[in-house]
Amino acid sequence: MLIVYRIFWIVGLIALVAEMVILANPRQIAPQRASDWEIREQGRFRVRAPKHLRLEHDLLQILRLPEPSDEVQFLDIVTLSRGERTGMQIIIVAPKQTPPQLGQMQGAPPFNLSQFMRRTHDMYLAAMREDWGNVDFSETKRTTVRIRGVEGIRSDYEYKIPHPVPFLSMPVRGYLITLPLSPTEVIHFNAYCPPNSFGDYEKVYDQIIATIEVRQASQSPFGGWLR
Amino acid sequence: MCEWCRRDRATGAVARTLPPNPTASPPVGAPSGSDPTQATPVAPSSQPTQAIPTPQPSSQPTQAIPTPQPAPLYDYSRPAGQAAVQQQPADSIRFISEVVEGYTFTAKLERFFGVALPLAALNVLVLGWKPEWAAWSNLLFFFLVGAWLPVSHLVNKLDTDVELFRDLGIVLFLNFLCCNPLFAFVLYGLGMLVVWAITRADIDWSLLGVMAIYVGFRILFQLVLMLVDYVDLADWLSVGIAFFGSLPLLAMFLGWFIGGMFRSDYA
């Protein structure tokens, strides 16, 4: 009977080695096939994203975000993530005080959306820099981008996820894109991934940004209770 | 001539003869008239004989084959009672035979891995095909492996051994605390080494072996999930309190407990 077990473990070992070799060659870095993507809807967002990026639409996440300033409020948030080091966060922000409408309150300073966009962009980066979960945060590049006909700001950054054992700290590379969403709203796209797979995942994130759809606030099923 | 080893008593030469006939054999040395080869003292002119010289009268037809004289296996010329056996000193123990109960350790390992490795190959197949099923697939795998542990006789079953349950609790708590099974295994191993170094007590290392098997399979499955780009290395290295990450170990211990109920103690 022992010979039977011997045959089984030898065959099992060979099968294991063969499977590992097949999985490693080629190693899948980012979703490649169209069948790996699916369309998902959460809140105001309709996103076409890879299946292995888990979608989280928990409005309590807003409480976990870095402390906003007195002039900014978060309206909605959705997170696509695969672990701690790969993912994208999409946040809609608006000024806390409703901007004055045209024809009302004459004499009030006009609301400058581009100025508000730059300010929220800087505040977001400052909050990431102060986050204890991000060590050695540094903004490496800032450029102006045009996405779907709209001009916005892109900042590339790097940081490390700290670990009790120093040499096990994991580096992260990402970028933050801020675009005007409506006359009173701004949308942030915070995308991050390991540095060695940045080239592959940048294309994935660009596809997500290019195909995302955001409903108007009046169409939100939540009735805008955050306002 | 010795009747049993067919050697000449004086020279030790082998005499090729027929085996002794128990039914009709005259006494040794007695001359036989029917033996044509027997050399008998007769008058040289009276009786024609086929003089085949034989060294000694024998009841059987004998053909002495002169052979080089090797060292006799046993010196039959020495009277009995003087066996050339070294006397054992009075205070030593001479092991005559060894009694082995059940399987050897390598046989137990082969029995265990004969089931565990094919199951692992199946689990890797599932993980590569549907990585989102990793949680359930790993739970089932470790439950089955834990159930096979006592049945394969690699480890003892979980009986009413308070110390073993205490060690299981310590290992589970370390896994909850460290989140990473590798860190928990290293901590537990170091702790056991320190305890052994200090107390020199008789420690049961079988749980450490079970932990090593668990950590080995966890690393393998995590590697598979990384190869299919489902998890990241940073998630594996994170240290922190986590309950769900320790569920596979809990499943393994549960399987160990249940498997012990089906174990046959007569291997």
Structural class by secondary-structure content of chain B: mainly alpha
> Which value, in Å, is the CA radius of gyration of chain B?
38 Å
How far is it from the N-terminal to the C-terminal residue of chain A, by CA?
73 Å
Secondary structural class of chain A: alpha+beta
> What share of the residues of chain B does DSSP label as strand, in percent?
under 5%
* Unreliable residue stretches of chain B: 29-52
Oligomeric composition of the shown chains: heterodimer
Percent of residues in helices of chain A comes to: 25-40%
And the CATH topology of chain A?
Protein Transport Mog1p, Chain A
Domain count of chain A: 1
Q: Quick one: how many beta strands of chain B?
A: 2
Shape of chain B: elongated
- Mean pLDDT of chain B, to the nearest integer, reads 75
- Taking Cα atoms only, what radius of gyration of chain A do you get, to the nearest Å? 22 Å
The strand line-up of the biggest sheet of chain B is 1-2
